[in-house]
Specification:
2 copies of one chain form a homodimer. Chain A has 221 residues and is of the alpha/beta class. Chain A has 10 helices and 6 strands. Chain A binds a DNA duplex (30 and 30 nucleotides) through helix 9.
Chain lengths: 221, 221
DNA sequence: CCGTACCTCCACCCGTGGGTCCAGGTGTGT
DNA sequence: ACACACCTGGACCCACGGGTGGAGGTACGG
């Protein structure tokens, strides 16, 4: 968050979209904003990388579906090699996978193509300032995905497991072999096996892989 | 997303924070923006509700920690009774729980208190336009939480896994032993072991329990 | 005082898992 | 024609996992 947003210099923006019918008008309309300067237009990811190599830029307005190198991969490379450049995704698609992939790749904004000029300009300014702007729908989806996980310990495990058995199950769920569990609990490996046999019988667990799944499902791991 | 952002009318903003030392200067500095009008200042949630009942507003800039009625509860009520009013959270705390609670309650923005005046103004404008603005840190946390239990296939697996190897990993993740996997894929157990050896080497998986965890984390199971 | 639950540990058995090395068959691109 | 990736399969070895059947310890409640 930078208070003194440098208004003395226009934001250098690169527009990336494989469709010229989208790219050209978009670049033109963005250039009308007095604080934005479109320094390049790219039809695929390689052209974006070439553009940032040729001249400095602040923000890349990125389509996801592009030939040769798509927006996800391009975003990933940009955030690795040029972390100072902010990527704002502008795409038709707002499915969970695309959103997670894009933001996970380092995008600092995600707009759908029914965003207006004002919305896009605002997102560019925010991204340049280190903020993230998301369409309302995108935020809702992201939030829904985040909340989709079970918060509390589930009832998939019988309540009559002893404390020790729970501990052992937790460590199994973390992928530890019996020897490591024994060391961690300061007991012998034989004892670990005893606990395992008991808890397997109680909880109806077949084998170790099954135990891992149950432990994760129960929120122990 | 509304293209014709109505610039002919100033955005009516309510500032809610229990600390007068924060509330008053904030209201003053926001009022300096020509497109923003601070129509009320509130010290807790009940004052916010009273203010929106008394006069129309567009955006509420909301602190989370407030006496009587906190920001979460106030946000929840606002989004129920006045869904046209956008809530932007401005708080010191950026823990996962607060973020999820606030956005889940209907907040359309989440800023930490090291945001500058420009950042706050931008967030207010975006929220009024239906967009969501998050601090970079907040976005990262939200994304991390969303990816913790993903529905989509993750990037935790190397991309050079073959189709067969993915299938085998999926079945391992479901707890099946090699024999059952072999039957399910109509191949011999020896072949299953070959695939397992290859995919373990490629993905850096140590043993079967580890494979189960990775499969679940990757959303294959 | 005695039963019961829990934690601790040992010995034995053997099935599955996983590593290693190898090899034939197929399809694809050069 | 050739290399290469992939799927397929077999043989061998042995470590780890898991079942069985014990045994001795403490702590608690009837």
């Amino acid at each position: 968050m930078s208070e003194p947003t440098d208004d003395s210099r226009r934001l250098r923006v690169i527009v990336a979209d494989d469709q010229a019918a989208v790219r050209e008008p978009l670049a033109a309309v963005l250039g009308m904003s007095e604080d934005i300067e479109v320094v390049a237009a790219a039809a695929d990811g390689t052209e974006v990388l070439a553009a940032v190599a040729a001249a400095p830029a602040d923000v890349v307005l990125m389509d996801l579906r592009m030939p040769v190198m798509d927006g996800i991969e391009t975003t990933r490379r940009l955030s690795e090699e040029h972390p100072q450049i902010a990527v704002v995704v502008l795409t038709t698609f707002a499915d969970d996978e695309s959103i997670l992939a894009a933001l996970g790749a380092g995008a600092r904004g995600y707009l759908t193509k029914n965003a207006g000029r004002q919305d896009i300009v605002r997102a560019i300014r925010a991204a340049a300032a280190g903020q993230a702007v998301l369409d309302r729908e995108v935020q809702d989806r992201l939030l829904a995905t985040a909340r989709a996980r079970p918060s509390a310990t589930e009832r998939v495990l019988p309540p009559d497991l002893t404390r020790r058995e729970r501990e052992v199950l937790t460590l199994i769920g973390q992928g530890l072999p019996n020897r490591a569990i024994a060391e961690k609990l300061f007991i012998s490996e034989a004892t670990v096996k005893s606990h395992i046999n008991n808890l397997f019988a109680k909880a109806g667990i077949r084998d170790r892989p099954d135990a891992v799944r149950r432990a994760i499902a129960a929120g122990l791991a």
